[in-house]
Amino acid sequence: MRYLFILQPPQRWFLYPPDKAPHFHPNYTTLSWVKDTYPYLPEEEKPIECTIRPGEVLYFPDRWWHATLNLDTSVFISTFLG
């Protein structure tokens, strides 16, 4: 499992459960993905998404696919447990 604590500006997170194939590509930035791929995904193929703001904590289980988009210069603390 992973915990993330945001210290400075918000981050936008995109999450897919382990049983869904993500539409991310390791050779593209999240910003490129948000601009070029995300708008064209059918609703049923879009990831779970959220914006984490300073002082908030995000938890997600092992093996979940994820991508982050920093909305500005970002400072955060991340830990893996297990």
TrEMBL record:
GO terms for cellular component: nucleus. InterPro entries: Cupin_8 (IPR041667), JmjC_dom (IPR003347), JMJD6_ArgDemeth/LysHydrox (IPR050910). PROSITE patterns: JMJC. This is JmjC domain-containing protein. GO terms for molecular function: cis-regulatory region sequence-specific DNA binding. Residues 1-82 form the JmjC domain.
